[in-house]
């Protein structure tokens, strides 16, 4: 009885507690589910308010409106995403339709073996479309893509970017990693065992790397040509690699024997005996003593200073026991194109590499190897970009004395510039020069003939190798632009003269020399007063 009576007394309290708990849970639920505005939250009506029902109805109506707006916003976003997806799909289809149907570039992920085969076919097609195996016809000289050259330590570049350094260590990590990867891959390829040979293979290392050149065709890939030391003197290993915006593919691995490859250096000349003496010193050291596979052809215009030039040539021949030279004399006004053309056609021996040179050029034995390695009859001609020296009297004007010539030949932005507007120094096989038609002999005097020849090669199917080289220098000399030149030639001559003197900063120091001296004088007076 007592328990039943207690339970009956406790029941109203339990019901009351349950009502309070349910009411509390309803309030909490409504607080949690009511959307918030940007700055405030909707307040619930007080329980004892006479308009409780109307308040809840208003809240529910407002929440319903908010949900409706949210659903509309989501539908708009979904529609935008669908439109964007449709656009991307159309772009992808257009890109895929540009490839030949036979390649079937579209990758079928349901069949991995087909996808891999199609990808490999595409990568190989990139090699075929790029200028790797042969040259392509180009409309102008501006369409040619130059190579850049590199060694283990330095990159020699035409596009100097913000640094304006013609040579530098590759500071950008992507470029540094790229070149290291290519060299390592080439070394690995050289060390891959050859099943046909039973002899113990030589182990190549990065120290055997001589130099390389590379260039990137933006829509195809990057072509690398790397040269390594061979098994004997004057022998080299050449590796050609291509990165079709994917894994690097070996294109070629060949032995290159240059032991019997002769270079005929052709120099047109008129007067300038003192410059010819300086040139012969360089020719004797680099061409005769270090290289030894060289011939010199001098085409001389007129008779003034001719005996002095012939004497310099004969003295070098006797002292160095050098007989491989030809002297041709023409009784007419100087024409560089005519001189080079006559010198090239005068040769009666086998097909030979022609190096068109000037008397104010300094070259190294390494450059002569580059001349051989970058020419191939019916395939390649070599147009090196030489480093042009600034006026030493301006560069070293603040020194006690001007350094020796060998000490001046340093590739830095303070000492010179890549002469990328010049096309006069070039290497090609004589057969290619004759087949292309040689020089335009109607051009007289200075300038123009080299550009015309360069354009002929670009319009042919020969590959033009255009790259800065570290072993070819244009020595500074005062340039005179004669009144007899045509307006176009005179303009080219004056532009060349302006660029030859000094860098922008050095010329600026000369222009503001008086202002700088005045400033220094004031500073000196001010320091004395203090």
What would your notes on this structure say?
- The protein has 530 residues and is an alpha+beta fold.
- Among the domains are: 141-190 and 204-257, no CATH class; 263-477, Spore Coat Polysaccharide Biosynthesis Protein SpsA, Chain A, CATH 3.90.550.
- Helices cover 44% and strands 19% of the residues.
- The chain has 15 helices and 16 strands.
- The chain has helices at 2-33, 52-97, 112-129, 173-190, 273-291, 306-320, 336-346, 365-373, 392-395, 405-408, 430-436, 449-458, 487-501, 504-511, 513-529, and strands spanning 148-150, 155-156, 167-168, 209-217, 221-229, 235-243, 249-257, 263-269, 294-301, 325-330, 353-356, 361-363, 380-389, 416-418, 426-429, 463-474.
- The strands form 3 sheets. Strands 3-2-1-4-5-6-7 form a 7-stranded antiparallel sheet, covered by helices on one side.
- Strand 4 (209-217) and strand 5 (221-229) form a beta hairpin.
- Helix 5 (273-291) packs parallel to helix 6.
- The protein is extended and about 130 Å long.
- The N and C termini lie far apart (115 Å).
- The model is unreliable at 1-9, 31-45 and 99-107 (pLDDT under 50).
